[in-house]
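=== RUN LOG ===
request id: a7f3
mode: sequence -> structure
chains: 1
length: 485
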Amino acid sequence: MLSRRRLVLGGSAALAALSLGLGRRTARAAVPAGPVRFLAVRTPHGVDRDYWIPRNSNGSEPLTPDEALSGLTFEYENSILNPLMPWRDQITILDGLDTQCIKEGTRSGLNTNHGHNEQGTLLTGAQAPADREGDFDNHPSLDFYLHGLLGAPVLPTASVAGAGTWKCMSFDATGTGRTPVTSPSALFQQAFPADFKPPDPGDPVVDYTNGDNRIINAGQAQLAALEARLQGVEKDKLAAHREAMKALLKTGNQPPLAHCTTSGTDVPSVNGNIGNYTMVEPIARAHAAVIAQAFACGRSMCATLRILDDYPNFYTEVPEVQASGAAALYGADFRYHENLVHDYWGASGSTLTTLRQGYCGGLRWAAGHFAAVLDEFSKVIDPLDPNGGTMLDNTVIFWHSEFGHDGHDNQHTRHPAVIAGGGNRTLRLGRYLRLRNINSTQRVPHNKLLTSICHAVGQTHVNFFGDRDLKDNPAYQGPLEMLMV
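=== RESULT ===
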């Protein structure tokens, strides 16, 4: 478990880094209550954007591009995100995000369509290789990149069913896919050595109040000197940061922080075997619980979790999919992906009505899995949060699909994207944000979201994340301003 002293030192260093970049809008990121971790979650099959967004109670779309989710609902016919109703204050819906980098084609050896095998671009921000089973050409994924900056013993990459790297989420420094772990028990053993022991809660709590305050006050003195040399809006920004730092000053007799309670012998019994669709959520929960524990005990700071990919046929078994009537259209060999998903965008009339009920029913089932991940993270107290927050409070969770809205293998626009959890101090939560005119040719590169996540975990020096050929393109630079606090 990380020490309380390391947390304060890290907070001071982060503030100093902010002070060096006051000319950029990146300085708007707030200081979190505890270190912010990062988890990316992926589910398959894309989305029909019109049934994924929240709506008004009368069924109309949100009237403005920026609205509180508390005034909107996911409870309407064929709604996909209905399971997230209880989590509305801890999530933000990003409507109109695009993997525009796919279409750039700035060098040879690239594929400029977006389908199943281009899903690696979601976390690398890079153009996809023409060899649809190839690597991403020295472009690491965001989890791998942040793992190198934040530091931790392990970088978990988990998957519910499926294996290998063909549809993986995590890519190393060479752009080569990292093989996911399908068994929660194996994932735990990867994160926790067998001899790992948590701190003894009976040990006396060391009071670092005086030392911590000296560190904070030293930083305040340096920032005060800098503030005296600034004028206007830059001076105001720095003054606001100094006020935020005052909240870190200790008064002595602080309550002890929570403790990491996980031992290396606490291996979960869930082994990742899926007999039928009913086992998908328990395995997803078990993976999420292991990752949350690894975060809490300082074993990891970043992770990825893939909950199925396209071809395991478990979606076909979901009762709502079966009840839609889609199976009757295809007969005994009906498969959710190869039949329903492939045919959805070209269907019309009563066939489209049937396929829509099945498609949205399957995606709603997947939304329930993401809600289960949020639930598991909400159960784990963060040992490094002096306010007693949970791992959900201090983890930025990015949920997405491998492709967006539109016909098969042409799905680079309107990607479903939900930000949850720990962004509540650095990213705006509880919001519906429409990033662009949905029916226009305007595009908002998802690279800007990847940059926003970098800022949320304290890496505010990052102004671009993704393909090397696009780093100087202004359209791809900076964070999503609507999302930033």
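=== NOTES ===
The mean pLDDT is 86.
The chain has 13 helices and ten strands.
=== END ===
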